[in-house]
Amino acid sequence: MITPDSIPQNSSWPLGADFYALRSQGIALLQQLASEEWTDYNEHDPGVTILEQLCYGITDVGYRASYPMEDLLANEYGQIDAKGEQAFFTAANIFAVSPVTVNDYRKMLIDNLSVNVKNVWVSLAKKAGTADNTPSVLSISVEKNESNKILTDPALIKNIQSLLSSCRNLCEAPAEIKILKQLKIVVKAIVTIDTDTDKEETLAEILLVTRNILSPPVKLYNLNELLELNLPIEEIFAGPKPVNGIIMEEELKSKQTRIDYNGILKGIMQVTGVLTVEDFAVSDGKTEQTEDSVTGIAIDEDHAAYLDLDKTIENIHLYIKDVKCNINAELVKNIYFGKKDAFKRPYDLKNGKDLLDISLPAGNDRDIENYFSIQNNFPEVYGVGKRGLASSVGALRLAQAKQLKAFLLFFEQILANEFSQIANAKKLFSIDRNLPPAYYYQPLYNVPGISELLKPFTDRLKTNTKPGVAWEIFKKDPKNNYVTGLNDIINTPEENLRRRQLFIDHLLARFNELIFTFKYASDNSFEYAEEDISIKEEILRNYVDISSARACAAFIDKETGLVNLSGLEKKLRILLSINDDALKSVIALVDKYLEEYFGGKSSTVNDENKKEDVRKLIRNQFLSIYGNVLLTGIEDTEKYFSGYNYAMDDSDHAARLKQVIAGDDAGDDTEKLIELITKLANVYNEFERFYLIEHSLLLPNNSEAPADFYPYRISLVFSDFPARFKKKEFQDYVKWQVFQFSPAHIQISILWLSVEFNSFEKLYFSWLNNADPLNTAPAKQLTDFLLSHSYENKGEPSASPL
């Protein structure tokens, strides 16, 4: 029996959508506040009529606010987050993470190389011939697919190395890769099949079963298959982001060490149409096994079992009622390869690739902001609707209707603004760079007769004799006094920033992120609120990458020159507002300016020896002495140098630089030289940067570094040239953030370098660009430099510097 649709008699509505409940509360409030003057609360009373219209308007607000979330977030085309302006990350993006565990690496390699690779096994092992202090490396054994289209071994190894380099974790050494050799297995048997069985189909199925038992393949699932198993989303997407299919943990079995003779026999017996199996044997070309045994054919660590397809087809004989079947070998192989590919493929070729992610739902554009004036719903006798009143009713009656309309505008403006707020809710949660207002509003241009009630418009009429034309111009002006007045009343810069911070902090809290930016957390003033918001928005815009690659090391593609920084570096650069993430030498930029200055016609020093002296002097010394005075200009040389001489390694240098700047040793172009020094100081402030060095990558070298210098240790090297980098408060903030976001098993040392940063950069780029693995000198020099400087060892700060 079909139950007809009906409206329940005792339905429970939210207050905002319950007209009668709102009316009752309104009457009760009127009785409480105006019972002495207002005694008639029946429907004919004008005050009750106004109350009912307002209650109706409130229910419309409640109704629109209760739309499905996808409708509230949809644009005019029904799309959600079409431009990527929302922090709506799909399951595959937000749950996925770069490989961390051994099984993560197996999933990533099998999935990305599914055309070429059948299976991969990963383990941790010490690299042969290395010292005990070196970290373990990933040992990867690769079983290739059986196909003529797969890559050659060198090409496949190169692809694997590229994949591993792009997701290598901090302090992990490069992996050792081994392509397993083929241990070709031939299966022999006499198989009796049913009369109704397709012989080629049956033999192809026998071959597939045998292959899968010899070396079980890893199945790639599509999302629908796993959802049908009622698996939790976080379990489905645990591990690396799927590319060709989703791999579950139970699919990742250990590498087989022996041929499963009995398993193959049972598998063939279970093939549909197979009646009996006789004279069953398995051979590797050297040994033939004819019965189950624990000492059967072994598979060593350098080999993987492969089914010798052609010889197995020759040695499996099918019979139907004692009559041997003639087999079309090519047809059998075509069927076999089709079955093999279908087993691993997570989708049906006919229907196209199934989704490997959960897409954002589609919504409906409800035109939520569209406001229909409640004045249109009043009885016509009130004279506030579209028809208004006839002029014959007299000036007093017309004035009374206009007065009521003006009174209702206060309520209507609030209702219309609520519609606008609901319609723009998606913008409040946006991570777009354009700061949204705290509260949205809309003008009431569609209220009947409103043009006569808006003073900003009536003031314009004094200079325009065509009301119709003037009204259209007024409505099209987004900065007319009515609109700007609404904004001034509703929004203030302080409130916009305060509300924006609340929304951004809420979005970060969804991902268990609590972000403190340096300036705002230290000062907590309105002046720094916008920068605080900007940094947090940048974190959210890059959150998928920052989150999934949080443990990843840097990857530099030497063929393309592309640099992918480590997850820790990416997050620190955003938090510290360091925008230039490329590996460019600051010192090289300074050299460029020096070359331009001293190599040009306007050089202030003519003598070549003096020119070189001044070049070295400025290059090596100005970093320690420039201070704030250089940024504002040098007016008093004596005052400038007092208090700075302590930074000079030679008091004569201070005197010489003083002479140069004063003009005694530099000719008449003193201002030009001061301009250069000021420009260089600004370069150092502009190009704030730091470098991350994994100590394990400095091996091998013959430095006398202690044993604990290399494994699971990194150095963060900062220049302290920029003004804020010199502040102890900022340095404490950096240390605290490094502790917050770095992997717990890695020891981190932080170095703040002044003049020594010059030497460091030379050594760093010499090591980074060294293409000769036999040349260990750059690694030794950089190691010795790091050893020669004191370390601020990573440890939990006693308290937040904030």
List keywords for this structure.
single chain; 802 residues; alpha/beta; 4-stranded mixed beta sheet; 31 helices; 44% helix
Q: What is the strand content?
A: 5-15%
Helix content range: 40-55%
Shape: flat
Q: Give the integer mean of the pLDDT values.
A: 81
Gyration radius, rounded: 39 Å
Number of helices: 31
- Rounded to the nearest angstrom, the distance between the terminal CA atoms is 68 Å
Low-confidence stretches: 348-353, 600-605, 620-654, 660-669, 797-802
Which structural class is indicated by helix and strand composition? alpha/beta
How many strands, which pairing sense, and closed or not: the largest β-sheet?
Answer: 6 strands, mixed
- Total beta strands: 15
Topology:
Elements: H1 19-34, H2 46-65, H3 69-73, H4 91-94, H5 102-112, E1 117-125, E2 137-144, H6 153-166, E3 173-179, E4 181-193, H7 199-214, H8 223-228, H9 233-236, H10 261-269, E5 274-283, E6 288-289, E7 303-307, H11 309-315, E8 316-320, E9 323-324, H12 329-344, H13 395-423, H14 425-428, H15 455-461, H16 467-476, H17 481-490, H18 493-510, H19 518-523, H20 529-541, H21 543-548, E10 555-556, E11 563-564, H22 567-575, H23 586-599, H24 608-625, H25 627-632, H26 637-641, H27 651-662, H28 670-686, E12 690-694, E13 713-719, H29 728-741, E14 747-753, H30 756-768, H31 777-787, E15 792-793
Parallel strand pairs: 2-3, 4-7, 4-8, 13-14
Antiparallel strand pairs: 1-2, 4-5, 5-6, 8-9, 10-11, 12-13, 14-15
Helix pairs in contact: 1-2, 2-13, 7-10, 7-12, 18-20, 23-28, 30-31
